[in-house]
Amino acid sequence: xxxxxxxxxxxxxxxxxxxxxxxxxxxxxxxxxxxxxxxxxxxxxxxxxxxxxxxxxxxxxxxxxxxxxxxxxxxxxxxxxxxxxxxxxxxxxxxxxxxxxxxxxxxxxxxxxxxxxxxxxxxxxxxxxxxxxxxxxxxxxxxxxxxxxxxxxxxxxxxxxxxxxxxxxxxxxxxxxxxxxxxxxxxxxxxxxxxxxxxxxxxxxxxxxxxxxxxxxxxxxxxxxxxxxxxxxxxxxxxxxxxxxxxxxxxxxxxxxxxxxxxxxxxxxxxxxxxxxxxxxxxxxxxxxxxxxxxxxxxxxxxxxxxxxxxxxxxxxxxxxxxxxxxxxxxxxxxxx
Length: 337
What we know:
Elements: E1 9-14, H1 21-31, E2 43-48, E3 55-57, E4 61-63, E5 77-80, H2 92-104, E6 108-110, H3 114-120, E7 128-129, H4 136-142, E8 147-148, E9 154-157, E10 160-163, H5 167-181, H6 183-193, H7 220-230, H8 238-245, H9 249-260, H10 264-282, H11 287-293, H12 299-310, H13 314-321
Parallel strand pairs: 1-2, 1-5, 5-6, 6-10, 7-8
Antiparallel strand pairs: 3-4, 9-10
Helix pairs in contact: 1-5, 5-6, 7-8, 8-9, 10-13
């Protein structure tokens, strides 16, 4: 998503009868709250609908549109909430507006069952998409032309994003803020929402056994993660982390995935990228020093991981997201496992 620096980012919350109140609330909480006093960019979130009449939501709530669907032609990002009944047909005018926005290249994100709305519009034909794990078979049955990915929190295919259910919608919204406005803006929003700053899209949707028997008395793995975060500059391996946990490599890897939904190395790389993003936004440290402090070892390695995970380089990331008013050296020590 490319946003003009001369105005707030314009966001469209697509509204029609049947949209899910939780997803409407998530979208509003991320983009509809003024946090400019805390350094977050201004957003212009509008509720766009085919009809100006109030839209009833489950639980006795209602949503009042404040823009027509023509807003979609002016905005920088379109977000489609999930549905209470996942087979609810969207109004033809909504589907046509989404198709037009897609042709113009506007990024479109669907939360949870919102993937069904995009599929109705034909926007997911021949594409990969994700939805709530309990809806994957339903989405595939009604839209066989969509490649449904069963085990991811969110993913991108072209200019279209889809996410799994409930909390994964929060993850996707924060990810979209992060990729457009920087890690610090996303972290500030996450702190105000009292939620984790990020989970990677490839992380498992749910954890089969969140508290393995051996970890119920003391979360050994949490202390290992905390140690790794405080000592990111050290050359951690699965073997060294397993040794700190007092486990074999195989047992450690199995328990780590069971408690976090990802692998030790993937988790570690994600944390290092996040720490590097903070340093690039907040400091004037040379790139080799940023790479050293965050455990990448070399600028080349850090650049490779930025390209793979963020589709940009550390230098370009700094240019795009640095805070000109906070160019002082900061401590990147983290204690949150």
